[in-house]
Specification:
CATH class: Alpha Beta
Number of strands: 10
CATH architecture: 3-Layer(aba) Sandwich
Number of domains: 1
Order of helices and strands: EEEHEEHEHHHEHEHEE
Strand content: 25-35%
Bound molecules: adenosine-5'-diphosphate, magnesium ion
Largest sheet: 6 strands, mixed
Number of helices: 7
Helix content: 25-40%
Distance between the termini: 16 Å
Mean pLDDT: 94
Oligomer: single chain
Shape: globular
Length: 225
């Protein structure tokens, strides 16, 4: 599903040049659940953003579902990303002025899905994350764990094949964190490919394999199969 070959990402400002990714090669098969670990600043979020087409690489090849996407413009990346890739962030990133249901329905609005179908799919996915009883609430009225469940609902309402999660339990206590991990595991067992950045060994144990990053490089030896 995913094949990265020698991906580099260099951030340039007038004074400094930061090599955030330094020759990353990686293959991910459909249905895999992968954890990415490594110290702060090693390039984890940069890698996730490139995988999710939020950002482009400086050089290298990225094949997503058989298509080369490394050289796409921002506009083309947005088009490919829409509906195909769901994001979950550490800080939830919900829109405070919108209700839970409106937040979750937003990706469907961007996809041009009819109001009636939006309503049905939003209600289904809110049931799925057990937060239907808060559909009319605003994010600030929910606990962190509930907000992250809403964010997962929003990330999955378009039924994406790929879910990317950047420290999804980073702002949660252990009980809420475990709930979020159980939910991600469930989505994975139903077929979603998941790539998750985490600092927690316990969270990583939910994944099929763990990739370690250091100074923009993968330090693991590629597996033989
Ligand atoms: P991690 O998620 O592992 O903590 P990041 O991927 O966020 O690391 O960052 C990797 C490196 O790239 C860091 O040195 C960071 O300062 C730098 N970096 C990340 N994003 C930018 C940016 N937009 N502009 C300049 N430097 C950046
Ligand atoms: Mg990060």
């Amino acid at each position: 599903m995913i094949k990265l070959d020698n991906i580099t990402k260099i951030f340039r400002t007038s004074e400094v040049e930061t090599v955030a990714l330094d020759g990353v090669s990686l293959e991910v098969k459909q249905g895999e659940f992968i954890a990415i670990m490594g110290p702060s600043g090693c390039g984890k979020s940069t890698l996730l953003n490139i995988l999710g087409l939020l950002d482009g690489a400086t050089s290298g090849s990225y094949q997503l579902s058989g298509h080369e996407v490394a050289g796409l413009s921002e506009r083309e990346r947005t088009r490919v990303r829409k509906g195909q890739i769901g994001f979950v962030f550490q800080s939830f990133n919900l829109i405070d002025e919108m209700t839970v249901a409106e937040n979750v329905a937003l990706p469907l609005v961007y996809q041009g899905i009819s109001a009636q179908e939006r309503k049905q799919r939003t209600s289904d996915v809110l049931d799925r994350v057990a937060i239907s009883h808060r559909a009319g609430h605003f994010p600030s009225q929910l606990s962190g764990g509930q907000q992250q469940r809403v964010a997962i609902a929003r990330a999955t309402v378009t039924r994406p094949l790929l879910i990317l999660a950047d420290e999804p339990t980073g702002n949660l206590d252990s009980r809420n964190g475990a709930e979020v991990m159980a939910l991600l595991s469930e989505l994975n067992s139903e077929g979603a490919t998941i790539i998750m950045v985490t600092h927690s060994e316990r969270d990583a144990s939910y994944a099929h394999r763990t990739i370690h990053l250091l100074d923009g490089k993968i330090t693991d030896h590629p597996s033989s199969h």
